[in-house]
């Protein structure tokens, strides 16, 4: 392991979980977790190797099991990801990676299980970002089953046309555009790819490229570079869920900046204390000098009176299931159930299967 990977780089909340281990083991586990966090995007296989090394030493630490599960997901080890993330959910009491679990089921060719996870989720306990991502995965699973119109209907939720721009807005609009394109509604798909591109300031999707593709614009480039370039799957494709740990493994720059600021403040305090001490020392010296002068004057006066001169004075100096296949013998009732689950007390979905138009957006509310 590289020497520059330090245990102290691990987030303090995760480090707190490692206090139950003896110090040498805790430090080794911490370094493996830091390495996992640093490598998970650029080298998932190596990140998984570090996470597994940490699990061999600390299998009862929930953050370790989460790290293994997410690294396995990024590396395409779907079954391992499912096992580890389910274990993490049991240990932590959270349900923060349901979308990742559902996506793994899709990748293993089990879209029915992905839909089951969507239906069985407790919406009240889910973070909104997780709920939206789970919805996108479930809609993709409907598409896998050939129920493409159902996928379109599922994604027609209030968040789709909300005027507020939140982190998942671009991904939801992209998934909806892709679903529209799958059922042949090309012009509507183009509009929603455009809306997705408008809010995708972080470049999470390739909405702009899909828009150019629909417009028939071909950008010529070096074919070798294009072949070497890694193309990220769009939202709704297996393996595309933005899987991040509940607590980032490596302490962020903000924490480091705060530490630096604290050090600077401590240094300033020390300087102030030194200045105050120097001033106190100077005042003490002045007082001593004044006392000496007074004593000398008194002695000099006494000596004058006695006819003898003899001045005298002394100076002193002083801190983070079993399969139940029921794809759909009753597709229409399944679609209605899914749409009701997705809406979840939100605005009603149009019965004709179309999303509200631009003029209706002002009436939508953020869930």
How many angstroms separate the termini?
Answer: 45 Å
Outline, from the CA principal axes? elongated
Got a strand count?
0
Helical coverage, percent range: 55-70%
Largest sheet: none
Helix/strand class: mainly alpha
> Number of helical segments?
15
Kindly state the mean pLDDT as a whole number? 76
Element order: H for helix, E for strand: HHHHHHHHHHHHHHH
Rg over CA atoms, rounded to whole Å, is 33 Å
Strand content: under 5%
User: Which stretches are low in confidence, meaning pLDDT under 50 for 5 or more residues running?
Assistant: 222-232, 253-330, 345-353, 356-367
Commentary on this structure:
Residues 222-232, 253-330, 345-353 and 356-367 have low confidence and may be disordered. The radius of gyration is 33 Å and the shape is elongated. The protein has 367 residues and is mainly α. α5 (78-92) runs antiparallel to α6 and α6 packs parallel to α8. The two termini are 45 Å apart. It has helices spanning 12-17, 23-39, 44-57, 62-74, 78-92, 98-107, 111-120, 128-144, 148-154, 169-182, 186-199, 207-214, 223-228, 253-306, 331-343.
